What does this fold into?
Amino acid sequence: MTLLPFLSAPLPVQLHIIAAVFALILGPFALYRRRRDRTHKVVGYLWVIAMTVLAVASFLIPSHFTPIGIGPLHGFAVLTLWSLWSGINAAIARDIARHEAIFRSLFSNGLIIAGAFTFLPGRTMNQMLFGEPSQLGWVVIAALLGLVALRVFLPQLRQRAWA
It folds into this structure.
């Protein structure tokens, strides 16, 4: 593991990674602790700021998939900004169930699923963890997507088993 790919990356990539790490660390505290207390609100605001910086910084990172520099992962950034807006509006409207559902989905889908693809060979996170473009990134991607699939399908399987 080396920080050299991070340190030599363009500023938008560095900002994107820093925001993602903060969001990954803060997310569980905001999502799984007691609600409606000051700590939840402060951590929640910090998480929203980190997610906003992450999404906005992604627009400054050109995609290599298209000639215009906008690629499929930029769609995640648009969805992230929309989800943040919707989640905040739900909290303001006191629709706590919707607020909770939006932000939990944003954490698992926005950070975990989209984040899994940062381990594609040749990307900065893959190079930081494994060195030069390594195929081991595919193992990380499969593991992360497998965990998300378990989280989604395991409750349904348990329900069917007890029915």
